[in-house]
Structure formats: structure tokens, C-alpha cells
Design brief:
Layout lengths: L3 H4 L4 H26 L6 H27 L1 H12 L7 H23 L3
Helix pairs in contact: 2-3
């Protein structure tokens, strides 16, 4: 008797979602390492971290677009249902937006504070 693993068909949606997940999890790690090595002269390590970050970024974008295309029917259904009456922005959405804006202000603001 075959196990469930052997009889189950390959799921493109699951594969695409997992590719987004794995590449997305690697982006902050490689980005931080890239930032740390960014102050050093060109070395093998700096080039390796930069290449890893670029590769993960490309994978993330490509598979995100593929994910949108695979789920376009559901996406358009949500857009059409929301077009009838736009709900008010929730407190959670406002807090999330404020948190992202504040984080960007802190991290990008140090570049302006540090001078040119």
C-alpha cells in the first residue's frame, strides 16, 4: 500500500508559498550581514553575502508575482467584494502602518544624521 506522501500530487501553490517563505526569511539575515560587511573593503565574505541577498531578493520577487498570478481569481473576488463598501481602517492596520513608518524613520534617519 502506498503512503500518503507517494500518492499526493505536487502542489504548485504550496511550492510557490514555501519559496516566498524561505527566501523571505533569508532576506533579513543576509541584509544585516550585507550591512555589517558594507563598511569593510571588498572581500570574499562581503561579496558572498551581497550575492546571497541579491539572489534571495530576486527569488522573493519572482515567486511573489507567481503567487499573485496563481491566486488572481481569489484576489479579484476580494477586490470586487470590497469595492461595494470600503470598511474603515482598523486599529490594527493603523498601528501596523505607524510601526513600519517609525521603523523606517529610525533606520533611514540615521543616514541623514550621519552626514554625507
Amino acid at each position: 500500500m502506498k503512503s500518503e506522501q507517494q500518492t499526493r500530487a505536487f502542489s504548485t501553490r504550496a511550492f510557490v508559498a514555501l519559496m516566498i517563505c524561505f527566501s523571505g526569511l533569508g532576506l533579513p539575515v543576509t541584509g544585516i550581514a550585507n550591512h555589517i560587511y558594507g563598511f569593510s573593503p571588498p572581500t570574499f565574505e562581503r561579496h558572498a553575502w551581497m550575492s546571497a541577498h541579491n539572489a534571495l531578493g530576486i527569488l522573493f520577487v519572482v515567486f511573489s508575482i507567481w503567487h499573485v498570478l496563481l491566486n488572481s481569481r481569489a484576489l479579484w473576488s476580494h477586490v470586487r467584494s470590497a469595492a461595494g463598501g470600503l470598511p474603515a481602517i482598523s486599529r490594527e492596520a493603523l498601528l501596523a502602518g505607524a510601526f513600519v513608518a517609525l521603523t523606517l524613520l529610525v533606520f533611514v534617519g540615521h543616514a541623514f544624521h550621519g552626514g554625507r
